[in-house]
């Protein structure tokens, strides 16, 4: 799933992806939700979330599941992650600038 320009903000998009991947309602998740304590995830679930976020936002994210414990931590990772620098992404970025 690729994220297109929408009216939703990145935090809302991250929460929607977390909800979909964990099969929860978005209303059941907030920024302070702890992945292990509140959402019942394990490291494999968290790794899959990172992969889905990379795909959705076309980002490069370090696959270190110890780097985040809450949904806000994950939002921060997405906001700070560099864009995918695959050659096709670079060509797209250059084309969009012209």
Structure description:
- The chain is an all-alpha fold and 98 residues long.
- The chain has a single domain (10-97), classed as Non-ribosomal Peptide Synthetase Peptidyl Carrier Protein, Chain A.
- The chain is built from 4 helices and no strands.
- Helix 1 (10-22) packs across helix 2 (43-57) and helix 1 crosses helix 3 (71-80).
- The chain is globular, with a radius of gyration of 14 Å.
Helix content: 40-55%
Globular, elongated, flat, extended or rod-shaped: what is the shape?
A: globular
The CATH topology is Non-ribosomal Peptide Synthetase Peptidyl Carrier Protein, Chain A
**Fourth-tier CATH superfamily name:** ACP-like
Integer-rounded radius of gyration = 14 Å
- Stretches with pLDDT under 50, minimum 5 residues: none
The CATH architecture is: Orthogonal Bundle
Task: Give a nutshell description of this structure.
The protein is mainly alpha-helical and 98 residues long.
List keywords for this structure.
mainly alpha, Non-ribosomal Peptide Synthetase Peptidyl Carrier Protein, Chain A, 4 helices
Chain-wise SSE layout:
Elements (H helix, E strand, L loop, with lengths): L9 H13 L20 H15 L13 H10 L6 H11 L1
